[in-house]
Design goal:
The complex is a heterodimer. By secondary structure, chain A is an alpha+beta fold. Chain A folds into four domains: 90 residues, Uridine Diphospho-n-acetylenolpyruvylglucosamine Reductase, domain 2, CATH 3.30.43; 118 residues, Uridine Diphospho-n-acetylenolpyruvylglucosamine Reductase, domain 3 (2-Layer Sandwich), CATH 3.30.465; 96 residues, Alpha-Beta Plaits (2-Layer Sandwich), CATH 3.30.70.3450; 46 residues, no CATH class. In chain A, 36% of the residues lie in helices and 19% in strands. A seven-stranded antiparallel sheet of chain A has the order 15-12-14-13-18-20-16, with helices on both faces. In chain A, strands 5-6-10-8-9 form a five-stranded antiparallel sheet. A four-stranded mixed sheet of chain A has the order 1-2-4-3. In chain A, helix 16 crosses helix 17. Chain A starts with a helix and ends in a 13-residue tail after the last helix. By secondary structure, chain B is of the alpha+beta class. Chain B has three domains: 231 residues, Uridine Diphospho-n-acetylenolpyruvylglucosamine Reductase, domain 3 (2-Layer Sandwich), CATH 3.30.465; 97 residues, Alpha-Beta Plaits; 68 residues, Alpha-Beta Plaits, CATH 3.30.70. In chain B, strand 5 and strand 6 form a beta hairpin. In chain B, helix 9 packs across helix 11. Chain B is globular and about 65 Å long. The two termini of chain B are 32 Å apart. The chains are: A alpha+beta, B alpha+beta. Chains A and B meet through helix 7, helix 8, helix 10, helix 16 and helix 17 of A and helix 3, strand 5, strand 9, helix 8 and strand 11 of B.
Chain lengths: 489, 417
Amino acid sequence: MQQLASLVTALRAIVGHDGVIDGAAALLTYEADGCVMDLHAPNLVVLPRTSSQTAAVVKLAVAAGVPVVARGAGTGLSGGATPIHGGIVIATTRMDKVLEVDTRNKRALVQPGVINWELSQHLANYGYAFMPDPSSQKACTLGGNIANNSGGPHCLKYGMTTNHVLALRTVLPNGELIWTGNGSVDTVGYDLAGVMTGSEGMFGIVTEAWVRMTRLPESLRVVLALFPDIPSASQTVSTIIARGLLPAALEMMDKLAIKAVNGMYKLGLPESAGSALLIEIDGVEEGLDDLLRDVTQICRDHGAIEVRPATTPAEQAQVWAARKNAFGAMGRLSPSYYLVDTVVPRTKLPSILAHVGDVSRDFHLPIANVFHAGDGNLHPLILFDRRDRAQLERALGAATEILKESVRLGGVVSGEHGIGVEKRDYMDILFTTADLAAMAGLRRSFDPRELFNPGKVFPARKGCGELAELRQQAITANEIGAVPAGTWL
Amino acid sequence: MSDILSFISTDESLCQRYTVHGVVPTRVAIPPDSTAMSAVLHTAAQQGWTVVAWGGGTHQLIGAPPTQVDLVVVTTALNRVLQHEPNDLTIAVEAGMTMGALRAYLAQHGQMLPVDPALPDQTTIGGMIATAADGPRRAYYGILRDMMIGIGVVEVNGQTSRAGGMVVKNVSGFDMMKLYHGSFGTLAVIVSANFKLIPIPPVTATVVAAFAQRDHALDYVTAIMASQLTPVTLELLDAALLQRIGVAGTWGVALACEGPQAAVDRHVTELSHRATIHAGAPTFFHNHTHTQCWQTIADASAVASLAEGEMVVRWVTLPAFVGDVVQRIGDLGHSLGGNPQIHVRASIGVGYVRLTGLTTASQQQWFAALPEAVWVATQANDLASYWHTPVGGLEVMTQIRHEFDPLQRFNPRRFVV
């Protein structure tokens, strides 16, 4: 208690009195992010305004041996911002400025608390956008996007957050404040910005970032195609990709999802439809209608019952809003949902979706599907009532089944939401001990004391520190580890 | 042990062939597969040998020379396609496959991995990853860093490990692909890599705009960058390189267009029209001449074999400063000599300058005068330094090196750390 009190005093000297939250009730609001399975309040929450304040806060925390957990908007779905070992949450809420828009060099300098949607809205004034567009973009922040290597529908064509980060200003776990580069595309030495992106807050806390601005395409077309069932839509996706037609986005919704968004957005979609595909293509005007015709033909060839072009910007915005707010619309269907995030090779989409249907029946829970079909990135939403313990357990069981099948089909355990707490115990169905040990070695290079976001990513039963140490011993003894190498799937 | 030793040769003429930046290795191993690679590296670890990984040997002149090389381990026998599901647009390949072989294989399926390095029939995928190789289509598609979805390595003690997977979106665990990319053989030997692929576009064409004045060329580049056109390359070429692709002019801007016919036609028309607005004269290439043009430009950054006194520098700046750097290079050419030949991936800000006939002292002066240098390639083995200090994180980089190669046996002292 004494140590905490003196820490609070020291922290307030850095960030001001209102920059430290220490009241028990207020701290509870930081006990979880969007993943409500594991809850743990922090000891303190600190809200710095500048890079140097952040560095000073980190130095104090690590000197006291206190864990540090960064938090943006708390929209993460894997518990990445949940302080499961307590400690200090550093919230980036007050670092929310776009510092510079550099159209000449197609880059913007942002603070980590800038909201993704607001950045793109601002850049639109210049004719640009920040292309990674998670469904939560109206709330989620750039810092969170960087920590999780966030995706979104437009990643199919434009890549994920890591393809749009040029340089990071970051406070390392030893309190040192560095820039990884000067914002140009190449750097000398190892790609620190590259490894930090997607490192889930374990390699430091980002206080500024140079990110890419992408010129908005000259033209785009949006089409909503309705299918009688899921297999016809998922076959369509596979065929579109196999033919080499690369849309800007290719999203799928199933019957349950259609029902939810229909009610919410008054789209007037026929609820007899088994599934819907939202397809966007972009580029220069010339050739776009030909591409649209090819895509539409593939839809019809696979049994589309209706193909609706969204021709005006207002119509396009409405269709996109329905997709992006689909998760929120699920409240119409059930009190809770468990959102699974997994990826399969695109040719396996029909198989995994059939399996999801089987799981739904076997576990007696409805499962809605709204997802980035073009990437093979599934988001089965398992609908249940968390007030019923038995349903909660069935929901977790169903999720595990889906993940296991996904990996069996050549997929992975997270497409864009991250591992966090939620999936750390699935890491060893995908990776061998040696694979995890190499990652542990990388983590240890940044944070040997494991103070930054401890308890994340690595399986609970195979601690990161232990893995890294065993690996070092094997290396210095010139021995290969006891576990045989993994094989390619 | 005897099985493994059969892969490791001390034959003098073989070792000569694998001279690393002027240093002849004591032994050369050419393991036939990744299991043998693991065994060889395990043996190397037990023997305490310093190790240099060698693919096509096309980038070994980059960075500082080694002091001693106990073993060169050659990856070229690891040259198979491991997994390719054409309809998934993903592929897993062994790292000793050349880019040329991969390109030919993928073309059979109407697909491509759109990076065009120098000397594609020699340079290997693993070497390209390790040296962050690039090509002109970086302007639109990026480099292997942006296309890699998985990787397999053999670590310094012979342990194999992998990361990523065979799907195009994946945040399961840390991005080790970004760690090994550009690590210049200091952390592990890359034995396999997975990539996402693109279909070969139906139509390709090239516009080369020739200018009498550099400022006009740069204004043209700026205008194209600000437009909604999407050429896949935007290369600024000096007179020498222009001539090699068969175009007359003092400075040139070469742009390739790919896609459906209608889109390519639109690009060609507008790019050439805009060129004339900036006092440029357009030339067009299609099919064979298009391919030849781009191979010539890609090869302009080759560093596989350099003459004495020859030095190549890869440098990076912001696109807005490309003109300034090009000006400075021209000025340095007058004061320090070297007859600089320049080309720049102008919309990206990465450029190359090739210098010839320079003493070590002059090479050192050139390096000091180009803080934008990302790497230098030269035969000279006595430059005071071969790498500028990173903007930040040198200590973390040192830690990373220490975690992966604590005994400094992989390419010791050739890299930044």
